[in-house]
């Protein structure tokens, strides 16, 4: 039984003529904004608005930098400038913690039990027995 293996899965499909869906949205958005500027602004101001908007829409659609679309480059640029950065070599000075040498009066003194020699031997033997049982 033979199966068809899909090829070129990293290439976007051309949906609207020679344009991918993203390219079509960029062009349609740019054209829509240019139309709104033409319709509602005086012609001189409209031209000043339409030129950058149209060039930006064309750049988003067709221009690539190092084989990356302009949209990805701009996204990475904004991410780099507005995210916090971690510099390993620039360590922040740490605040020294003050440790009191003497316990405070209101704290209870903890009782530490003294282990006798025979009790220590019993504990050590118990640990040795447990260790030997794990090896087997």
Radius of gyration: 36 Å
- Specify the structural class: mainly alpha
Task: Name the shape in a single word.
Answer: elongated
Taking pLDDT < 50 over at least 5 consecutive residues as the criterion, the unreliable ranges are none
Distance between the termini: 51 Å
Order of helices and strands: EEHHEEHH
Alpha plus pi helix count = 4
Beta strands, count: 4
Query: How large a portion of the residues is in β-strands, by DSSP E?
Result: 5-15%
Strand order of the largest sheet: 1-2
Helix content, binned percent:
40-55%
| Main beta-sheet annotation | 2 strands, antiparallel
Overall mean pLDDT stands at 84
Transmembrane segments: 20-38, 43-63
Organism: Candidatus Nomurabacteria bacterium RIFCSPHIGHO2_02_FULL_42_24
Keywords: Membrane, Transmembrane, Transmembrane helix
Pfam families: PrgI
Feature tags:
136 residues, mainly alpha, two-stranded antiparallel ribbon, 4 helices, elongated
